[in-house]
Amino acid sequence: MKKLLILAAGVLTLASCGSHGDPADYVDPFIGTDAHGHTFPGATTPFGFVQLSPDTDTEGWDWCSGYHASDSSLIGFSHTHLSGTGGADLGDILFMPAIGPVRFEPGTKAEPDSGYRSRFNHKSEKASAGYYSVYLDDPRVKVELTATPHAGIHRYTYEHSDNQHLMLDLRHGIQDNVREAAFRQVDDQTIEGWRRSNGWAADHTVFFRAEFSAPIREIRARIDGRDTTVTEGMGKEVVLALSPEEHTKNWEVKVGLSAVDIEGARRNLAAETSGKSFDTLAAEARDQWNRELGRITVSGGTDEDRRIFYTALYHSFIAPVLFTDTDGRYRGADGEIHPTDSTEGANYSIFSTWDTFRALHPLLTLVQPEVNAQIARSMLRYYRQTGRLPVWDLHMNENNCMIGYHSVPIIADAFFKGELSAEEGDEALKAMVHSAMQREHGGIGHYRQLGYLPADKENNSVSKALEYAYDDWCIARMAQALGNDSLYRVFIRRAQSYKNQFDPADGFFKGRLSTGAFRTPFDPTEISILGQGDFTEGNAWHYRFFVPQDVTTHISMLGGDSAYIAAIDAMFEAPTTTNDHSPDVSGLIGQYAHGNEPSHQVAYLYSFAGAPWRTQERVDEIKRTMYTTARDGLCGNEDCGQMSAWYVLSAMDFYPVTPGSGVYVLGTPTFERVEIAPTTASGRPFIIEAEGLSSDGKNIYIRSAEWNGEPYTKSYITQSMLDEGGKLVLHMGSEPTKDFGTDPADRPVVQIPSEDALTAEQMLAEAVFEPYIEDTLRVFGHSMTLFPKCAAPQPRKIVYTLDGSEPTSASPIVPVGGITLTGDAELKLRAIAMERSANRRSDSQVKSYRFYKSALKDAAVTLEQAPSAPYMNGGAAALVDNAMGGDSYVRPEWIGFNGIDAAGTIDLGTVRSLRHVGFNADNEPRSWIVLPRGAVFEFSTDGTHYGHPVRIDGSDSLTAGSGAHYFGASIPGGVQARYIRFRIENGPLPEGHIGQGNPAWMFLDEVMAY
User: Listing from the earlier edge strand, what are the strands of the sheet with 726-733?
Assistant: First the structure.
């Protein structure tokens, strides 16, 4: 079993921190628990399944980990937590000590006395590697927590015996929904059970076994609202009050967890805690942390530098988590129980791949190669069980959060660094290709057909296309390494698809429509979020430099070295204002956003253009301003170790701009000496010494260097240097030098081979773009004539239909005089190439337009309640301006109503004959925007007497597609009216939504009648 639990194997001798103490002495788990860091302060072990930590709240974005430093009361202590994510879940199996009358409800932050929640003072909190304690003011109990990989250990020291008890709340979770929970008293000192929930993880079950140091006298329970005294029970809402047989000053609980079954929880608890005291287990947890943190030894720097560094390394070793029981079993992504193969090692979970492929996994390949190899093998198991590599795995649940197929670079990097065998490489390549060919996933079908992602077909199109291109480069390299030339050709072409999103007019990557045109208007500061807009949690500035697979070519595309350097400078020096706001976009220096991942490599790109001193300046600035020892010492989400891994690597003085390339760009060191322990018994350590590094922080520039005693002039190091071990000596100074790393031969180069290089024109030559209409008016009066066009390098004909059917080669060709509309119509267009291509489809995809006839242009609208901030936009007038917002609710044509109906009156100015009425609404359930429940329209000639009611039913938002939806109905017999009174009905978020019951947003952008 020791082969499976690699964390328990003492493979390395503890390295000291010079004369400054053990690495664990510098760990401060409170860093990142304030602002938007989203970390937790509780007890855990390196990559452990259990994270035993206090929960202060379970709702709100800044409580994704269950804890935020702004709170002064807490609910209790649960056993599973996410580290720094932007999504919330877990918080399983909560305990909370209490005295006095039993209160089964937790109470609120506003009124802690209304439940078992307790006030606390942050000054009483203590946290270190593997340990947490706090004094609870209300029950007057000191709480101490520690952990093993599969167990949480609690010690409660009561000051008073007034009906002391311990709450065990199986309802509790962090923004999830309990499906079912159960418990059973095994004997007077043991309880076991399970909790099943759905949330960010669609189907998540945790089994537990709790062993108490003192006998339990009584179990009072509230099960689905019914109070009882029982020894076992099951329900949706289960909460217990456990009373000891007699007053005990110290009541300890050992809680074993398993994702497999109760027997697994029992075995885990016995294997890791049997016969051991709280103090012994706390010491073992600290020893584990010292052993793992000691893989990197630093000397010099300030005490604050060391606290930031080792806390960052600590955060880098929290996720992914061990998802294998001590008996070798694990629950797979297929829901089945599997044994692990001792040759593959343990199974791991929690893969936030969009974040962690950039720096966390490259760091793990250096200092935790055995763990990283098992993570890569876990991803391959995931593929075997589900048919696709994981995107964002949460306890073996794919939540498909974020974009790309970034398991690919993680596995490829592990393969190139020798962590996987050739046989595993063959399977990995098959898994990569399969995942990259999923036409229905993330717009990949469009990407494959056109060579880019059309912005009108797929949200976040630019971010996805750029990241797919990098992932495809990794696949191409894997194919080349394994001798598969045909796959190499396919994917090295796809790796250059980023060029098809590039607009040479201003040097930005932009949303490109299915018509071939770039989307307008364009604002590089406009933020878009996951699921909306052209970028993912960022803007065009943040993605302007994401071409890690072809940096040198990108420099040429931007005009060469000087222009490239100026472009990066412009990013850092631009105003920090952004169009719209996302809390993910934080840690701003100009338009550089260190608080989120897309910008993380940018500061190191100067070196590719021959300006390493600019890299040194920017990296120094980021380290100094974006990382501190305060609770708000992280400028953005920790994101499962990525934010911290950036600091660890940068403090050591190198960073992997292109994971999978084996190239690390030098920055500027934080410490006088860094030693990375060898990962094999016969290996040598890798050492960086920075001579002349000053305590005042001024000597940030590398003036010259030696590698193993020989002059070294390059501004980068390689994987082979790290593997072989040796000493890199840097001579630091206070002034930049133009002599080090500036010669083209001394710069890092990552470039697609010239013999395989293609231009955008070559890649798009055979693309069949969709036809388009330049007139953006979608609502018209008496009639409208349309003139479709097609942008294409090859001759095309345009066919169309007006009844919603799919146009074919047999459909009518657009006449020279255009297409005239006299009523509502669903126009569909298709371009067909006059010459067929052997490589691509010879017809375009269908372009659809919906046109509406309306008599309401510039009518006067009065609303009972104004639209809800911040989505007021054009106000009431936006409902009748004949301008429609399309499928993106962030466009200014949409107005939003939060938890209220949209009700009001429209004055046409004169009596008109009307036969039809309708409206447009948006649907984005992931953003808590749902379709109306329905609507009622009434009509009047005098504004007093209304009649002829027309009821329009809504649709199920969870089954309807995202984007704009039209709801309309005929007015029976027609009506004469000047005034239209309407009520479009909002309601709570529907059952089945993660926020069910909460107020919903309703977005409208046009009311129509004719």
Answer: 296-299, 673-676, 686-691, 726-733, 701-707, 710-711
